Amino acid sequence: MKTALITGANKGIGFALAKALGKKEWHIVIGARNEERAKAAVEKLQSEGIQQVDSILIDLSESATITQAINTVKTNFAKLDLLINNAGIPGGHGSSLEEGLDDLQATMQVNFFGTFQLTQGLLPVLEKNHGRIVNITIPTGPNPFWNPFAYKATKAAQNVMTQALAIDFDKEKKDLEIFSVHPGPTTTDLNGNMTAEGFHTADDVAGKITELLLDGTSHQGEFLEIYSELK
Q1: Residue 188: is its pLDDT beyond 70?
Q2: pTM across the whole model
Q3: Which of 40, 72, 77, 222 could lock 179 by a disulfide, CB 3.0 to 4.6 Å apart?
Q4: Which are the contacts of 22, defined by CB distance < 8 A and separation ≥ 6?
Q5: Contact 183, 227 (CB under 8 A)
Q6: Is pLDDT at 1 greater than 50 in this prediction?
Q7: pLDDT exceeds 70 at position 79
Q8: Three-point CA angle 180, 219, 182, nearest 5°
């Protein structure tokens, strides 16, 4: 049985991925920053017939909880095959001309620094298990119709992390794979559960991502946009 740790898996795309992989008989480890929400997510998955599911506390805004989570994985989930970095915060959606430094730093901590700390800390476990890392992210090119500075800046840093780690894995002959997935417009709490033409459900997106995870193909360093495939 393969094991996946999914951050931010108590809701949205993360929860949908936990459900999709759980139904493929994966052992799911939900990463969440709130113990009650994590417990509720575990119980909901179990009610849908997914029995191999656990949770750990991970608050990407707090370095100490990330260190604790890394140690918990090493002790309790040493067969971890897959890390899905799904957790993130939107940051302020105002103009870059008005973006506050505090908001930018807080968004960067969760979406980049915290995510990097968790990823780097779990590399020894993942390498031992010939594992993979998947980052749920976005394209960050210029777009006058959607220009949230903090969110795009932090996701751009995460995209660079993906590229850099992929190069270094290959250079150092590490038995590891990393790639990014852009789910496209998806109705989640991150955007206030927005629904509009071109938006898709978290379950739809999770289904497509699961297909990628199980396609038997190496996607080292790739940035995969799945929204155009959704119907």
Answers
A1: no
A2: 0.92
A3: 222
A4: 28, 45, 48, 50, 52, 53
A5: yes
A6: yes
A7: yes
A8: 25
- DSSP characters over the chain: --EEEEETTTSHHHHHHHHHHHTTTPEEEEEES-HHHHHHHHHHHHHTT--SEEEEE--TT-HHHHHHHHHHHHHH-TTEEEEEE--------S-TTT--HHHHHHHHIIIIIIHHHHHHHHHHHHHHTT-EEEEE----S--TT---HHHHHHHHHHHHHHHHHHHHHHHTT-S-EEEEEE--SB-SGGGTS---TT-B-HHHHHHHHHHHHTS----TT-EEE-GGG--
Token couple for 165: 């780690």
What is the rounded end-to-end Cα distance, in angstroms, of the chain?
Answer: 31
Total count of residues recorded for the chain: 231
